[in-house]
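Handout, tutorial session.
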Amino acid sequence: MRFLYQKWDPRFDQSKSKPAFDRLNEIFQQLLYISSGDVGQALKWLTELDKEYNLTAEYDNYGIADFIKELEERGYIKYDAEEVEVVITRKMERSLRTRALEEVFRNLRKGGAGQHKTAHQGKGLEREPETRAWQFGDDANQFDSTGTLLNALRNSPIDQFSLTENDLRVYETDHNTSMATVLMIDLSHSMILYGEDRITPAKKVAMALAELILSRYAKDSLEIIAFGNDVWKVSIDELPYLSVGPYHTNTLAGLELARHLLQRKKHANKQIFMITDGKPSAMYENGKLYKNSFGLDRKIVNKVLNEATQCRKEKITITTFMIAQDPYLQNFVREMTEANKGRAYFSGLNKLGGFVLEDYVRNRKKNV
């Protein structure tokens, strides 16, 4: 007998069985996330990786120049004459979102038919085992034929079969609802401090969530806002290009804008997802930026807690995804969560995507 250890045998390395373009494109797209959509920088890094790890050595007559040419032929990159540089196209932006969704959502349990389930029963898509009496307006596809016939037999006169409205039974179904979400992304300087890249996973999660909603939850809405010293709206197409700036963290302005955006929505459920790694350290006061980077400033914190309470009054749930481990920052998140009656996740970067998408799909409170 002979044993073959496939895991370490290069002949069974699945990555090397892929076409050259597919293998290099996977690496290139990861580099685009990190470079905030800078094609030139990503290609420079790819060239350096090829030099160090011989990425193209196994492919005959195929090099980085061939890969760049194929990227352009397939419509993933184009030459911008005005900016005199190479940029990614909308096709690549969509590909980045799709890849992010596949990466984050790969191991999560798939939801129902593109809707969000609630604890309520009503008109929906997924049948429950329980039945009830038929009511006017019920979907005929949900009739319980067995229960209906048994009722008719039970209520019919001897030697005569009759079916009346009172005999009809229908299955209960999950009530499906729509969701309006505002995703807040922290772009303060702390997102890249201490040699840890926190903004890249945050962007990938935002792209995955955007693609999930666009492809599976068409009736839902998603608004994305970035916050630092100030706050501003971000389109889905702009997500790959987000980068950290020399900003403080104006959580208050972010929550205020998110609440105002949700006030305009007519969806049954409204929520705010906030991805952050730091404490609120700035706010506007009388038109000027009040900031304090040293510890938790109660003046700022109290304003944030008041805004969280206002969101609760307007039935807007705040879910905070905290990617920092400092106990005093976690205590602030707990305080804000209590004020809003919302949810909080204290997540490492490798689990951030799972928490965000799983919470969105399941749409229920969880303790992690």
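The second record follows below. Compare its token runs with those of the first.
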Amino acid sequence: MTVETGRPVDHGLFGPESVTWRVHLEPVMWVAGMRALLLQSLHPWVMRGTYQNSALFDPAKAWPRFQRTVEFVGTRTFGSRAEVEIAGARVRRLHHRLRGVDPESGRRFPIDAPEGLLWVHCGEIDSYVDVARRAGIVTVAEADAYVAESVRAAEVIGLDPAVVPASRTELAEYFARMRPRLRVTDEARIAVGGLLAPPVPPGEAPAWTRAAISATATAALATLPRWARRMYGLPGLPTTDLAASALLVGLRRATDLLPDPPAPPEVREARRLVHEARAARGVRGAV
């Protein structure tokens, strides 16, 4: 909370001085969003619960559902505290009603089980911080600050902040513990196929959307950790890492030369405030 002209201003969970705002305003983060979906899909229960309950696998509903997800992340990042709480409560209510079934054991499980929520959160944050580092958006110290700030976002979906990784080291330790539980299920293969050849019906989105999503998903696959690429049957070579990093740097430089993309009012305001904050500190560079 800051004060301008004597009136309190609610910048939500983060604000213009945060690393989170700066990272999430970068267009190259679309690659991170796709990387998160690919990484999250490697948890069998999470993927099956999503497949059994989500409209993302229905071609007639996929694009509106995707848009709602993007809107939630935008509200969580740039909305006021009241807006964040309303959006978070809506998501928590929705998840609390849903159940999944493990076809191998027949066991039913809640979609909002803490293990699943933590996996989804960590897949998202690891993807954002990894792409931000490799694209040259943040320093090592800023990357750790981003992960620490993300604990606030985890609370919005109902996680206990005490169990949420608050540094890149803690994130790495978390993934090392989780790797034995991960694998590519049939549902994950369907999900990846849908990203590479998105089922966007005519009239639901601009004509270029299918090609853009497919290209972004292909780039995201290359940015996955080596062990995750191997699970998907892709090369886990260091050369792939180098090529992916070079691609991210190039994409970021290219987007820096373009006009700011269309955005909701709260994102445009956040962009303005971050520019002002950076200018006040004498920092150059696009946001």
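Points raised in discussion: The chain has one domain: 13-272.
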